[in-house]
Amino acid sequence: MSRAVDLPTFPFVASAEPEDDAMGGRLLATAPITRARLASGVEVWVALGHDVVRSVLTDTRFSRTASLDPAAPRVAPGLDIPDVLVTMDGAEHARVRKLLTKAFTPRMIEQLRPSIEATVEDLLDEVERHGPPIDLVEHFTMPLPVRTICQLLGVPYEDQERFRDLSDRTRSSTAYSLEEVLTATFQLQQYMRDLVAAKREHPADDLTSELATAADERGTLTEDQLVKNLLLVLIAGFDTTLNQLSNSVVALLRRPAQFEQLRQEPGLVPGAVEELLRFLMLSPTGMLIRIATDDLDLGGERIRAGEGVLALANVANRDPAVFDDPEELDLTRVGASRHLSFGAGPHFCFGAQLARQELQSAITGLLRRFPTLRAAGPLEDIPWKEGLLLRGPKSVLVEW
């Protein structure tokens, strides 16, 4: 890749707020794919247009396993770990994914619905007992996905503060040093090893026990694959939903008319969740980097084998070639589900249906129980997380 002095620096987003990505939109208006320079000085390709992003995510000539090469470009420290589903390709990826997705089939998620709805009601009862003002992150948008994923994996809920803090460190872009990221990763892996050992001694009806049995009796997973992939499910299972739900609440608080529309027409909630997934820019760094394994053409550019390509679903989700008035949040939008927030292709997020169920149940319950919900202070004063791979508020004070 030839050098250039005027390449944009990646990530393009400077703001911590999930509604802001002006530079990505400006670049997309010029071309569906561009070059950029990482903080390390390494150049990469960045896919922006909807069709180009989808191509990167679905074309097997873009490899995640190749990102493990020490010479491969890095967006953030500690992201590329062997034996994890997100760094596998081909048959090995399909084999491990099949094992992990047993608890995430549509049938299993539908069976979880009553439990999720009961958790929503319990948390909203606690919110009501506490009374306003209250931090909705601490008391609602965080504990809902944490309790849900803990139930699925058989993780003791009382351990949640421990793994939440360590999780933030492993999902750092600039907030923590490489040493801090690696230390947190080691500690989380050790936590999961201890949990697996406990489940071997006392099996239960949870995914950890089931996968430990599969590893021991059928040899389908190595110990490293078992531990690291359970950890992946734990972290991804609460962190993304926590931030998406928190961001969705803020977006609705900023738009009282749309909040009221959903309250009056709760049947709109499933479509509204898809539109919020499209509109809110959760990760400024996009999908995990992929390495081209062959020379190929993409978006009018020639990609050479060995070059890194980043797929920005955030920008693709506001591609005017696919979505009318893409910069507007329209809760009645037709076709919002064409967003790429859960990815596409072999690495499509297998927890997507669980996340959708949690988001729908949470928003429906919140609207019904607190129809006069509003921010307890200026919305511009909401503190946002910085230096992490996912954007979201640290706290959201509300009243009613």
Description:
Helices cover 48% and strands 8% of the residues. The chain is of the alpha+beta class and 400 residues long. It has a domain at 76-285 and 340-399: Cytochrome P450 (Cytochrome p450, Orthogonal Bundle). The strands form three sheets. Strands 1-2-8-5-3 form a five-stranded mixed β-sheet, covered by helices on one side. Strands 4-10-9 form a three-stranded antiparallel β-sheet. Strands 6-7 form a two-stranded antiparallel ribbon. Helix 4 (106-130) runs parallel beside helix 14. The model has no long low-confidence stretch (mean pLDDT 92). This is Cytochrome P450. Belongs to the cytochrome P450 family. Keywords: Heme, Iron, Metal-binding, Monooxygenase, Oxidoreductase.
Largest sheet descriptor: 5 strands, mixed
CATH fold type of the domain at 76-285 and 340-399: Cytochrome p450
Helix count equals 14
Shape: globular
The sequence of SSEs as H and E is HEEHEHHEHHHHHHHHEEEEHHEE
In total, the number of strands is 10
CATH 4th-level superfamily of the domain at 76-285 and 340-399: Cytochrome P450
Strand content: 5-15%
Calculate Rg over CA atoms: 21 Å
Given as residue ranges, the uncertain stretches (5+ residues, pLDDT < 50) are: none
CATH architectural grouping of the domain at 76-285 and 340-399: Orthogonal Bundle
Distance between the termini: 56 Å
Q: Which structural class matches the secondary elements?
A: alpha+beta
CATH class annotation of the domain at 76-285 and 340-399: Mainly Alpha
Largest beta sheet: what is the strand line-up? 1-2-8-5-3
Q: Give average pLDDT, whole number.
A: 92
Helix content: 40-55%
Protein name: Cytochrome P450
Family: Belongs to the cytochrome P450 family.
GO molecular function: heme binding; iron ion binding; monooxygenase activity; oxidoreductase activity, acting on paired donors, with incorporation or reduction of molecular oxygen
InterPro entries: Cyt_P450, Cyt_P450_B, Cyt_P450_CS, Cyt_P450_sf
